[in-house]
Each structure stands twice: as structure tokens, then as C-alpha cells.
Specification:
Blueprint lengths: L1 H49 L6 H16 L17 H27 L9 H13 L7 E3 L3 E3 L4 H4 L3 H5 L5 H24 L3 H16 L1 H9 L8 H10 L3 H14 L7 H11 L4 H22 L1 H20 L13 H7 L6 H21 L4 H14 L8 H20 L5 H23 L5 E3 L9 E3 L1 E4 L7 E5 L2 E8 L5 E9 L8 E7 L2 E8 L4 E7 L7 E9 L17 E12 L8
Antiparallel strand pairs: 1-2, 3-13, 4-7, 5-6, 6-13, 7-12, 8-11, 8-13, 9-10, 9-12
Helix pairs in contact: 1-2, 1-8, 1-18, 2-17, 3-7, 3-8, 3-9, 3-19, 7-8, 7-18, 7-19, 10-11, 10-18, 11-13, 12-16, 12-17, 13-14, 16-17, 17-18
Length: about 600
């Protein structure tokens, strides 16, 4: 009897070892993806810590090498299926609790950055262009034109990317609610993958997925991109495509892939790999896959091509190479040199003439290698991501945010492996449920972080983050250090979850001579004038009525413009020699006693 139990014990031990060897490759490629996010942001972190720009060549080599190894080493077998009754174990519940805490912390961090930084074309012009597109479409005009933001900028994105922004537009909300929603989608799926691995008793795998979730949410470049970005609107399609493709539902996956391409044209680099895979594994479905993949492109872009083919071609294709080559490449050691990718190195070494040829060569090389890989049974999504990487690293201007498309496609591929292993029979229902869950997380973060009537006391330690631009800290005699408008105008960010008519009250002290004329202070809320008040020297409360149509749910830009500025040391206010115009101690948003019905 004792010998029989010992044999069973050995059998269980070998079975655990066997499971570990099957799971471990999936663990290491998830860990590699977490490292890839770190490498992508490494040059920026170096700059912030050392105060000087590093060489981007080491980061380029490390980034490309790691992702190539991940794609080549991607396991061809899925992890073991989850057994029934796994939820009755404590480990999945613990992992789920930790995952929820990580996602909540990341959402809180992202919404905090969004609310403290209003949409500003001087930081990035993508969202201002989309806002102008929405207004033009509502007037019945062709969206594919040139916009003044205030410089000339075309619309270079398909409708899958910009149409979702109609939702916050109609709700009179910050457009970046869509950005936040799209950014949270994949981390929530990563959290679900961690729970799946915990149900499989794969502690190492669950921990690795939690690390990847935290790495995505804590990435400094992605956090900054949440304040200016536009591409997250299509990111929710990535996990759906990954699950469908991993489950070999080729026709449905082809349709979703077509939508992804309409949302982000760079993703077209991975389409041939997908079609090769369908041809190898299910040749009768290949023609249907081609037609279904092309259908969204034709149906969604075709009407605009018929409407004005020249405008569409100019905005989507022709204008970008001209602008980049003239404005970016022409600057010695400029922005193009400080990007991860091959293009910056080529331009810096005066090899501009071979940039396009390099792109064609590298993408073709990945396609050829991908053909042989899928014939040997390789998974298509890692090779699709590798082809997209080759395209992005050789594009005309490989900005940091285009690599999020690559990394998140890799992440979606890993998610597909884990979720398919959980035997999900109805992926559309699970995807819809994830949409609802993501929406709840984004809405909760906004409602908690943005009060209905914000009050900012600039004597508090954490209030400086609401000072967007134009302020300098100074100290008058007998007073604490407070923000003063440096020059004639400055901007404050007001985070608000309501659009009701209100009064903005500003406790201010104008920088004017004691017996001189009063300071004229004009307030603008999100570009709309609220009025002008006269303010003499001394602390006082300035009130501006803000109608409901001037507010948005989210970050609101309050701009204060003063008629004159003076040097406080010359008029006896302080020993500050700079030209300042107004000291601000407190800003309160108060309910309007007589609310305006204008909208």
C-alpha cells in the first residue's frame, strides 16, 4: 500500500513538472513583452534622469532583437485547458483581487494626468484635428481636408479611428474619455489572463501576467500618450481579433482585421501574414477571408474616395511624406534622430535616399520568413506583429507611439493563447462584457477624480499640478509662495464631471501700483470668453459666469488674460524683478444661482 502511494506521489510530481514545462514558454514571452515596454521608454527615462539625450541606437537594437526573439520563440502549442471548479480555489480569487487593484491604480494614474492637462495642439495636434473633423462632419462636409490647428494639418486616419470620438463629443465630454477607454481595454484582458493562469495552478504565469499589466499601466510614455493620443480608439479590437484568430475562426477574424486596418493603416503590414496562415491551414476559407478583410476597407473608405478622391489621397498618403521630409528630416540632429528605429540613423548619416527601399526590404524579409514559419505551424499573430514592427522601424518618422500598436498586438496574441485555453465558447459575448467592464472602470475613475464643483487652494502642496502654463511661483511680503501669472496670461486646468452653469470665483491680487488704474482681467473657458472685470490692488474675489455650453466633462482650460504686467519690486509688492500681472490664491467653481439655459 505504501509503495502504491509512493508511485502515485511520483506520478503527480512528474505531472506537475510536465505542466510546468508546457507553461514556461508562455511565461517567458509574456515576461519579454513586459521588458519590451521598459526598453521602449528607456531613452526617455534616461533623458529625464540625466538631463541629456542619449543615443537611440542601443535601444533600437535591444528593442528589435527582443521582439524578434519573442516572435521566433513563440510556442506553437496552447497552454493546458482550465479544469472545472477552478474558481473554488483561493488562488484565482486572490489574483483577481490583486489584478483589480493594479487596474484601478493605473486608471487613477491615467485619469489624473488627463485631468491636469487640457487638450493642447502645442503638445500634439491629433485630437484637435479630430475635434475639427467631428464638427465638419456634422455640417455635412467632407472630413478629409486640411485643418488649421493653428498650422495646417490633414486628416490621415480612417473612420474606425475617429468615429468613436463622436460619443464624448455628443456627451459634451473630454475626447480623451475614448483614449482612456481604449487604453484600459488590454490591461483588463491581461488581468483576466492572470486569473486564467491562476485557475490553471500556474502561479508563475499568473504573476508574470500581473507584472505585464502593471508594466503597461505604469509605462511613462503610454501615460503621456493618454493625455494627447488618438489611436487607442481602435485598440479594443485587438483582443477580439487575437481570440478569433487563435481559435482559428478565420472569417470572423478577417472581418475584424479589416476594421483594424481602417482604424490604423500601419497594421496593413500584418495582413499578408494572416492571409498566408489561412491559405496554409484552411485553403477553402482563403477567398472568403480575403473578401471579408477587404470589405470594411471598401465600405468605410470607398464613399470618401468617391466623394473627393484627391482630398482622400492627399490627406491619407501624399501630404505626410512631403511634410516629414521637408520639416523633420531637414533639421540637423533634430527629432528624427531621437527615435527608436532605422530611419533616424539613416537620416543622420545622410542616407535619406534609401529609407523607402529599406522599408520595402525589411517588410518583405519578414513576410518571406513568416511564410516558412506558418507552414511549419507557427502562430500568425507574433509574425503579424513582427511585420508591423519592421514597417514602423523604417517608416518616415518612427514616433514612440507607433510602437504601442506593435507591442499591444504582441500582447493581444499572448492574451489569445491564454483565453482560448480557457475554452471560451462565445468570444463576442466575452468581448462585449469586457467593453462594459472597461467602460465602468473608466467612468468610475472619472467620477471619483473629477468633482462636480472643483475647489483649488494653491497654498496646498498638491495644487501645483493644476497650473497648466504661464505661472511662476513667487512670494509677497508676509504671504506664502503662490502662483503668479508671468507675463499677461496663464492657464489653469479645472477637472469637472458636470456641465451645469456655474460661477468661477478667483481669489486674486493684481500686480498694479497702489494708486494706479485697475487691472483688467478677462477669463476664457475652453476658448469661450466669460467676460472682463476690473480689479484694483489687494486681494479680492473675481467672479466669472460660465454657462453650461462652455464646460466639458473632464479637463477644462481656464485662461486668465491681464491687460498689463509689472515688476513687483518696482511697485512695492515684493522683491521679484520679473514682469508679473496677477497672483492667484484660490479658484472655486460655485453653482450658478441663476443657471443659464443657453446651449
Amino acid at each position: 500500500m505504501l509503495g502504491h502511494e509512493r508511485v502515485l506521489s511520483y506520478h503527480r510530481s512528474f505531472r506537475r513538472i510536465d505542466v510546468l514545462t508546457k507553461v514556461r514558454p508562455h511565461v517567458w514571452h509574456v515576461a519579454g513583452l513586459a521588458a519590451s515596454f521598459v526598453i521602449l521608454s528607456a531613452p526617455g527615462m534616461w533623458t529625464r534622469s540625466h538631463g541629456r539625450l542619449p543615443s537611440y541606437v542601443p535601444a533600437t537594437i535591444a528593442f528589435a532583437a527582443l521582439l524578434t526573439v519573442i516572435a521566433l520563440w513563440w510556442p506553437s502549442d496552447a497552454p493546458e485547458h482550465v479544469s472545472r471548479g477552478a474558481w473554488r480555489r483561493p488562488a484565482p480569487l486572490l489574483v483577481a483581487a490583486v489584478a483589480c487593484a493594479i487596474v484601478a491604480a493605473g486608471a487613477w494614474r491615467w485619469i489624473g494626468e488627463i485631468l491636469a492637462n487640457p487638450i493642447d495642439s502645442n503638445r500634439a495636434d491629433m485630437l484637435p484635428v479630430i475635434a475639427a473633423v467631428l464638427r465638419r462632419v456634422l455640417k455635412g462636409q467632407n472630413p478629409y481636408g486640411i485643418y488649421q490647428v493653428p498650422w495646417e494639418a490633414p486628416l490621415g486616419y480612417g473612420p474606425v479611428l475617429w468615429v468613436p470620438y463622436f460619443i464624448p463629443y455628443f456627451l459634451h465630454a473630454d475626447l480623451r474619455i475614448v483614449t482612456l477607454f481604449g487604453g484600459l481595454m488590454l490591461p483588463i484582458w491581461c488581468a483576466a489572463a492572470a486569473v486564467v493562469h491562476a485557475m490553471r495552478r500556474d502561479v508563475l504565469g499568473a504573476a508574470t501576467w500581473l507584472i505585464l499589466t502593471g508594466t503597461i499601466l505604469a509605462n511613462p510614455d503610454l501615460t503621456y500618450f493618454m493625455t494627447v493620443g488618438h489611436t487607442p480608439s481602435y485598440w479594443p479590437l485587438l483582443p477580439l481579433f487575437a481570440v478569433l484568430a487563435t481559435a482559428e475562426r478565420w472569417k470572423a477574424a478577417a472581418l475584424v482585421l479589416g476594421l483594424i486596418v481602417v482604424g490604423r493603416s500601419t497594421m496593413v503590414a500584418g495582413v499578408p501574414i494572416f492571409l498566408m496562415t489561412v491559405w496554409v491551414h484552411d485553403r477553402p476559407a482563403a477567398l472568403s477571408a480575403i473578401l471579408l478583410c477587404a470589405a470594411p476597407i471598401v465600405l468605410l473608405m470607398g464613399p470618401f474616395a468617391i466623394w473627393d478622391p484627391h482630398a482622400l489621397w492627399y490627406g491619407m498618403v501624399a501630404v505626410y511624406p512631403h511634410v516629414i521630409k521637408q520639416a523633420v528630416w531637414s533639421v540637423p540632429d533634430g527629432a528624427i534622430a531621437h527615435t527608436i528605429g532605422v530611419t533616424g540613423w539613416l537620416v543622420s548619416h545622410h542616407l535619406e535616399r534609401i529609407v523607402e527601399a529599406t522599408q520595402v526590404f525589411m517588410v518583405l524579409a519578414v513576410w518571406i520568413a513568416g511564410w516558412f514559419a506558418v507552414r511549419r505551424g507557427a502562430r500568425p499573430l507574433p509574425w503579424m506583429a513582427l511585420a508591423t514592427l519592421a514597417f514602423c522601424m523604417t517608416t518616415l518618422w518612427p514616433l514612440y507611439y507607433i510602437y504601442f500598436d506593435v507591442l499591444l498586438l504582441f500582447v493581444a496574441a499572448a492574451i489569445g493563447e491564454s483565453i482560448v485555453a480557457a475554452r471560451i465558447r462565445y468570444p463576442m459575448k466575452w468581448w462585449t462584457a469586457s467593453l462594459v467592464a472597461t467602460g465602468c472602470v473608466a467612468a468610475a475613475a472619472l467620477l471619483i477624480a473629477a468633482p462636480a464643483n472643483p475647489r483649488i487652494d494653491f497654498a496646498a502642496a498638491d495644487s501645483s499640478r493644476w497650473l497648466y502654463q504661464g505661472f511662476a511661483m513667487s512670494r509677497a511680503e508676509g504671504e506664502p509662495a503662490l502662483p503668479w501669472i508671468w507675463g499677461n496670461d496663464a492657464t489653469v486646468s479645472l477637472a469637472r464631471r458636470s456641465t451645469s452653469s456655474s460661477v468661477i470665483a478667483v481669489d486674486a491680487n493684481p500686480v498694479v501700483p497702489r494708486d494706479g488704474p485697475p487691472q483688467q482681467v478677462t477669463a476664457f473657458l475652453n476658448g469661450r470668453p466669460l467676460g472682463t472685470v476690473d480689479a484694483g490692488r489687494g486681494w479680492q474675489r473675481l467672479r466669472f459666469t460660465a454657462p453650461s455650453f462652455a464646460w466639458v466633462i473632464g479637463a477644462n482650460e481656464l485662461k486668465l488674460v491681464c491687460a498689463v504686467s509689472n515688476s513687483p519690486i518696482l511697485i512695492g509688492m515684493s522683491d521679484d524683478p520679473r514682469h508679473l500681472s496677477l497672483a492667484v490664491r484660490r479658484i472655486d467653481v460655485e453653482p450658478d444661482a441663476v443657471p443659464s439655459n443657453d446651449r
